Amino acid sequence: MYSKILVPLDGSKTAEKVLPYARYLAGRFKVPVELLAVVDIVEMASHMVSEKGRFLDTIIEDGVRQCTSYLRGVATTFADLDVRCSVEKGKAEDTIIEKAATDKAMLITMATHGRSGLNRFLLGSVAEKVLRGTVNPLLLIRATAEAKSEGEAMLKSILVPLDGSELAEGVLSMAADMAKKLDLEIELFRAYHIPYNVYAGDEGFYAGNYEERLAGVRDEAVEYLDKKAADLKRLEVAKVTCVTKEGFAADEIILLGRKTHDNLIAMSSHGRSGVKRWMLGSVAETVVRHAGDPVLIYRPL
Q1: pLDDT score at 67
Q2: How far apart are CA 71 and CA 117, in angstroms?
Q3: Residue 275 has pLDDT above 50, yes or no
Q4: How far is CA 282 from the centre of its chain?
Q5: Angle at which helices 249-259 and 282-290 pack, to 10 degrees?
Q6: In the predicted model, what is the mean pLDDT of residues 52-78?
Q7: Are the beta carbons of 104 and 2 closer than 8 angstroms?
Q8: Scanning 13, 38, 195, 265, which has the fewest C-beta atoms within 10 Å of its C-beta?
Q9: Given this model, what pLDDT does residue 121 score?
Q10: Which residue has the higher pLDDT, 45 or 253?
Q11: pLDDT at 98 > cutoff 50
Q12: pLDDT for 101 beyond 80
């Protein structure tokens, strides 16, 4: 499923909040971990006065040694796992994207910060650029004040939002593999509503019976999820439930995730390859920015 878990770290407590999830996944999947730190030479040079420029090489090498020592210390917290430490020179986001791109089965795990509640999720600049540029699966963890960096995380279920498209369904195979290996329940979710312009006439009156139309849309959503649940059961996923909810998709996904603990939200999204900007679908982007749960973004190839 995953060949390796890549964990970019910058020495901050925020970045370390991804570690419990990295330990959990690496231990369950029995895959190696690569801890990665990046020394940004351009950033270093931009903050140096010109007369100290001759010491840049020494400062860079000191940075490499410090990062190496730091990563080795973190590596000791991964008991009985194969952990490698790498320190690279370059821009952090480019280095992460390029290293992961050498192996499409590599999972990137990163923590990012944000405001609480439903305020705008302020992604860290590096995490945001990786999110938009990577072709690899990416797990983003929200580094709240309450989140810990010690121990292992725990997951109980995978919430998979679907909208009826082949793109959204692209995550189902990966979710099924995760559910079987981690003994998790899969909760399929579909939001539904009738756009205003479908049921309102020119003067603002309902065109036809709104409740009847809404019931029809709801029934279609239920039937669709039941079919996808049957597909998952044929893949030997033991626990599958289905939830439909009237409302806008992103809002309802976020609210549903907050009702239960230890969820993982798994979603597909589209984009361009390489280090070009990843144009996330609007629903996926909103969920990533606002959800309190870890979000796994998968890009079907």
Answers
A1: 93
A2: 32
A3: no
A4: 15
A5: 30
A6: 85
A7: no
A8: 195
A9: 36
A10: 253
A11: yes
A12: yes
Degrees, nearest 5: CA angle 205-248-242: 120
Task: Look up the pTM and report it.
Answer: 0.84
Q: What residues contact residue 243 under an 8 Å CB cut-off, 6+ apart? A: 187, 188, 189, 190, 225, 256
Contact between 134 and 283 (Cβ < 8 Å): no
β-pair partners for 85 = 35
Task: Say if residues 171 and 159 touch (Cβ distance below 8 Å).
Answer: no
Residue 118, pLDDT score:
32
Q: What are phi and psi of 142, to 5 degrees?
A: -80, 120
DSSP string for 214-246: HHHHHHHHHHHHHHHHHHHHHTT-S-EEEEEEE
pLDDT band for position 33 (cuts 50, 70, 90): very high
Ordered by start, the domain boundaries in the chain are 1-152, 154-301
Q: What is the DSSP letter of 104?
A: T
CATH number of 1-152: 3.40.50.620
How long is the chain?
301
Instruction: For residue 129, give Cα distances in angstroms to 83, 110, 207, 262, 285.
Output: 25, 12, 45, 26, 13
**pLDDT over 80 at 279, yes or no:** no
Domains 1-152 and 154-301 share a fold: yes
